[in-house]
Fold this protein.
Amino acid sequence: KQEVTQIPAALSVPEGENLVLNCSFTDSAIYNLQWFRQDPGKGLTSLLLIQSSQREQTSGRLNASLDKSSGRSTLYIAASQPGDSATYLCAVRPGNYGQNFVFGPGTRLSVLP
Amino acid sequence: GAVVSQHPSWVICKSGTSVKIECRSLDFQATTMFWYRQFPKQSLMLMATSNEGSKATYEQGVEKDKFLINHASLTLSTLTVTSAHPEDSSFYICSARTRVSSYNEQFFGPGTRLTVL
């Protein structure tokens, strides 16, 4: 059974810092992996989607990497801003097409001005 | 990107009443729709998967008679919480999967906060 963990559970950094959020999954047979942002009381905003055949994806100040063999993904945020404060969720879609996302518990990020 | 809407965005009801939540894919046809539940400070947990015109498939531990799912068309799925109780209070998020993208991408709605008094 696929399990997803995220480290750290919470992170507080001063504005301008570069930071890395970590995601680990137990079964390397995945279809894809997706990073989401969730603001308090709100739904999910998709940040980056990495297919199983890809190693990384970039969007603006965000870069996500995927290492299937080791069961890891990282989300790199450059030059953090207070507006980046949110919970970041990693979700893995198992290798069987019909299966649904397995979500990690999330990392709560606070970027202090 | 594709848009998924939910209605209502929040609802407060008395214990014992039923509440219906709608999920719509606005600009695409969804082959499959999913319903998740999220308790405070916890991650999303899949409740059920539904395909248009078929019965929903429920995850273990989710009562199908309590959480009624109807997937009447390729753009609409409804979740009805029957005889709601305070422990059903949660954030309910729907998601829709499309064939449009070659990767069969999945899009999430904004969520519905249910509070049962």
Q: What stands out?
A: DSSP finds no helices and eleven strands in chain B.
